[in-house]
Design brief:
Elements (H helix, E strand, L loop, with lengths): L10 H4 L16 H11 L4 H7 L7 H7 L3 H11 L3 H6 L30 H6 L66 H20 L1 H12 L1 H5 L12 H12 L12 H13 L2 H23 L6 H21 L1
Helix pairs in contact: 2-4, 8-9, 8-11, 8-12, 12-13
Length: about 325
């Protein structure tokens, strides 16, 4: 049986200004994560894709999360059709939480931080597994969706996340060192009180970022000194600790009053932070305040409410007023 062979135009000749496959960014996706997916979709291993962008191979994509050179942005816009603002939105450039970013560190020493964390259950639930921007923050130790602890290493070989160093056409949720599927990592446990404190800290930083950079800087500096307050690896900042060590730090702090978070503050600001921590987050505090107002306003309405009007008497009075108005008009 013969096969018909027809000579056709190459894809590159038909669409010379675009890479064959375009990949849409996913919600809260980190730029490096999107670049790894883009590389694979176009038949390039992530490590080789660095050369396509004119970059050195070593940790090339994590560096782009922080700062993207104009020539790289222009190339990505040209080849993908994605607007430059969409590319910038995936970075963490100029983020008020920048001091809390995990440092770019290629090695994965047991007791030190790595540059990236992940939630195995998030990766397992993704149609296309990807890494979130919030996972780069040292102040995050758990997943707000699944309630489990984040991980910063492959549980099989204990290597850090190194999708940027992958030489094969393998999705980024497989360990670049041993091939373990990170979606299958065991669930890490975090106590409920630690998760409440973590969410409160995130809300304090978010709320104070709106109010001004000085307040944000103060909140961030207190959080960075959390290991000293928790007496966990005294003298080291939060960004230098592994995820497991930071979980222990939050568990120790959750059992203490939040004095460490309000030292050297004005009374009003300190009280606000106390209230957010006590409620377990800003949204929880707002909900409690709303319930308080509703309860007291309902009681006040019951106390001062007037008797219900007789509907039939009200309609009769309205009819009389209308009749009087008509009579006055007739007399004119």
């Amino acid at each position: 049986m013969g096969f018909a062979i027809e000579i056709r135009q190459r894809y590159g000749d038909v669409v010379p200004d675009r890479w064959p496959i375009s990949v849409e960014p996913l919600p809260e996706e980190l730029l490096s994560s999107w670049l790894h997916r883009l590389a694979l979709a176009n038949g390039n291993a992530p490590r080789r894709f660095a050369g396509v962008l004119g970059l050195a191979a070593r940790m090339w994509s994590p560096h782009l999360d922080i700062r993207v050179p104009h020539n790289v942005t222009n190339l990505l816009c040209l080849q993908t059709g994605l607007p430059s603002e969409n590319i910038s939105a995936m970075t963490i450039n100029g983020c008020v939480m920048a001091p809390l970013l995990l440092p770019l560190r290629a090695s994965a020493h047991r007791n030190r931080s790595t540059w990236m964390q992940y939630c195995p259950q998030c990766l397992a639930g993704d149609e296309a597994p990807y890494f979130r921007r919030q996972w780069r923050l040292a102040s995050r130790v758990s997943c707000f969706v699944h309630g489990c602890g984040l991980r910063d290493r492959c549980p099989a070989c204990h290597a850090g996340i190194a999708a940027f160093d992958q030489c094969e056409l393998v999705p980024q949720h497989f360990c670049a060192m041993c091939g373990f599927d990170l979606r299958a990592a065991p669930r890490a446990s975090v106590k409920a009180m630690s998760r409440r404190l973590e969410r409160a800290i995130a809300d304090i930083c978010r709320v104070e970022a709106v109010r001004g950079s000085a307040r944000t800087s103060d909140a961030v500096s207190h959080v960075l000194r959390a290991p000293i307050a928790a007496e966990v690896r005294s003298g080291r900042t939060l960004t230098n600790l592994s995820t497991a060590a930071r979980i222990r730090c939050f568990e120790a702090l959750a059992a203490k009053p939040p004095d460490w978070l309000v030292n050297d503050m004005d009374t009003g600001d300190a009280y606000r932070r106390w209230m957010i921590v006590a409620a377990g987050g800003h949204d929880a505090l707002t909900a409690r305040f709303a319930d308080f107002l509703e309860t007291h306003q309902s009681a006040r309405r019951r106390k001062h409410s007037s008797p219900a009007a007789d509907r039939s008497a009200l309609l009769a009075a309205y009819s009389r007023v209308m009749q009087l108005g008509i009579l006055r008009d007739d007399r004119r």
